[in-house]
Amino acid sequence: MERGRWLVIIPIVSVILSVAIVCMGDARIDEKTNVLFLGNSYTAGNNLPQIFTDLAASGDKEVETDMNTPGGCTLFQHSQSTTSLDMIAEGGWDFVVLQEQSQYPTIDYYRETYMYPGARVLDQHIQAVCAETLLFMTWGREYGGKQVINGHASPPFVDFYAMQNALRIAYYGIALELTARVAPVGMAWQTAMTLNHSVDLWADDHSHPTYQGSYLAACVLYAVIFNETPEGLAFTGSLSAEQAAFLQYAAARTVFAKTHVHR
User: Fold this and answer.
1) Is 190 inside any structural domain?
2) Which of 13-27, 110-124, 180-194, 208-222 has the lowest mean pLDDT?
3) Is 4 within a domain?
4) Predicted local distance difference test score (pLDDT) of residue 218
5) C-alpha to C-alpha distances, 74 to 14, 19, 68, 100, 133, nearest whole angstrom
6) How high is the pLDDT of residue 257?
7) Are 95 and 36 in contact (CB under 8 A)?
8) In this structure, which of 11, 121, 130, 192 has its CB flanked by the most CB atoms within 10 Å?
9) Angle between helix 185-195 and helix 241-257 axes, rounded to 10 deg
10) Domain around 200
11) Do the Cβ atoms of 199 and 212 come closer than 8 Å?
12) 22 pLDDT band (50/70/90 cuts)?
């Protein structure tokens, strides 16, 4: 019986070691960080990848990005998309950022039937090219509310904070399973709102980001990817120095205080 167990365990260990060796052998020596974004209009809006690139450049970091972000696209759709899968398969990525449709994580049916299965498939492809999966936690609607898609509904969220808590639990749930990291963008929005309730993060539809919202997302990505505070970075885009400094602080406080971690 014991011998049988070892016969099963040894091949599994061999596979794990083989993957590790392949990834170590694939390690690049250049200083550039390559990031692929898979998401939808929450990522495409205001060209978040470009804001992140410019922000990184002001911190003396060379970044190259690419993205596939069709409007309303879900992780499950990305996991079935030849475009997304081919982009991952090109390889050379340090990180692949996965951003789910904004309502799916809060609706049990869509989270369990589409979000989580889609994330699992994408993570397998990402691991195969020795890149790191980074989950982009989105933000709740400005006023919360019940989220309904094709008859499937979330709880009636009384406000942004209630919806954000559901998003937090959903993203950390799949992150724990995949042993993936999370870019807690939505939690940084919560931090910013707590510090200054009048901060302008939502567009007029109460869902998509303003430039400030996208800049805050870029600050979070910078902090997570480089493990450095974005505070003091010179790139401010279309914001005033004061606005940028506030958002940099909110991102750093969120990422490094770790008060948002789901246990």
Assistant:
1) yes
2) 13-27
3) no
4) 98
5) 34, 28, 11, 5, 16
6) 85
7) yes
8) 192
9) 120
10) 31-257
11) yes
12) low
User: What average pLDDT score do residues 121-142 get?
Assistant: 98
> Crossing angle, helix 116-128 and helix 82-89, to 10 degrees?
30
Residue located via tokens 């993936």: 180
Q: Are strands 63-68 and 132-136 parallel, antiparallel or unpaired?
A: unpaired
State the Rg of the chain over Cα.
19
Token pair of 107 as six digits: 């609706």
Which CATH number belongs to the domain containing residue 50 in this structure?
3.40.50.1110
Query: How far from 126 is each of 32, 122, 193, CA to CA, in Å?
Result: 18, 6, 34
Q: What secondary structure letter does DSSP report for 230?
A: -
- Residue 11 resides in a domain: no
- Which bin fits 46, alpha (ψ -120 to 50), beta or left (φ > 0)? left
Instruction: Check residue 262 and give its pLDDT.
Output: 35
DSSP run (H or E) holding 82? helix 82-89
Q: Does residue 7 form part of some domain?
A: no
